[in-house]
Amino acid sequence: MNIGLHSPEAIEEVFWKLHTGDNYISRNCLVPYRVKSACIENFRDYVGRILKTNVGFMANRYLSKNNNNILRLPSILTAFPRAKVIIPFRHPLTHSGSLLNQHSRFCEQQEKDKFIEDYMAWLGHHEFGRTHKPFYFGSVPMIESDFPTESLNYWLKNWNDTYDFLLNTVGDESIFFCYESLCADPTNSLRQLCDAINVDIAKLPGVSININEQTIDSRMIDQTLARQSRIIYDGLRERSINGFNIELDF
Asked: Is 91 in a helix, a strand, or coil?
């Protein structure tokens, strides 16, 4: 997606934080929760008002790119039963490396500018930086991670926890979409995605794929986490709509 200063932005998480913040944001983590029916109706109204500002052939479509939606997917599908849930995934080691890089950048920027830290906290996004709070899917009080946030293993464990949760909780209405397969065969991957979400690919602008290559030092990886991530990644590939048979080092 090409995003610029004139791209529409719903700042959606502010809605959820205002209405349900106490239900999913705790002192040290974010947790899955169910949204009450009254709030569901408010969210439908919220989305409807945004759609009224749309123009063009996609005017009746609302795209929400929001990691925190993982925590409330059943409630969102209650609000919009015809919604298409797209779950992109990437090789766990390179994805974890990217997450670590983002976290480091946010920490550096927030150290220099307190407004960035305050703004991210106000938005309700705690993925990275000095206000980072991980998702927690357990049924008992959260135990602090064995790995510091500055380590690749910390982010690999988060990857394992999140995608294992998704594999075991989301239904067939969800669309798993593989980044590596997209890079290997973008034309077929995008056609399959458009077919799955009922979008005419011919009406879309030209697409170019920017492949982000990363080299991960395997000596840095906890081998137990690596074995777990391989199993989860294989499961994601099996369920993906574009899980082509490509060989990847692990």
From this structure: coil
E strand or H helix at 120: helix 114-123
Give the pLDDT confidence score for residue 57 in this predicted structure. Answer: 64
Other C-beta atoms closer than 10 Å to the C-beta of 114 total: 10
In whole angstroms, what is the distance from residue 237 CA to residue 90 CA?
10
Element (DSSP H or E) covering residue 191: helix 186-197
Residue 247 burial (CB count, 10 A)? 5
Of 82, 114, 138, which residue constitutes the final position of a domain? 82
- Residue 176 CB contacts under 8 Å (≥ 6 apart), including other chains: 87, 89, 236, 239, 240, 241, 243
Q: Is the dihedral of CA 94, 97, 98, 99 positive or negative?
A: positive
Q: Between 5 and 53, name the one with better pLDDT.
A: 53
What is the reported pLDDT for 199?
87
How many domains, in total, are found in the chain?
2
Query: pTM score, two decimals?
Result: 0.89
Q: Assign residue 220 a region: left if phi > 0, alpha if psi is -120 to 50, beta otherwise? A: alpha
Of 163, 129, 153, 185, nearest in space to 238 by CA: 163
What is the crossing angle of helices 223-239 and 152-169, to 10°? 40
Q: Which of 23, 54, 82 corresponds to the end of one domain?
A: 82
Same domain, residue pair 16 and 134: no
Number of helices (H) and strands (E), helices first, in the chain?
9, 2
Q: Which residues pair with 30 in a beta bridge?
A: 25, 135
- Which H or E element spans position 197? helix 186-197
- What tokens appear for 76 in the block? 């969102």
In this structure, the chain runs to a length of 250
Q: Which structural domain, as residue segments, surrounds residue 28?
A: 1-82
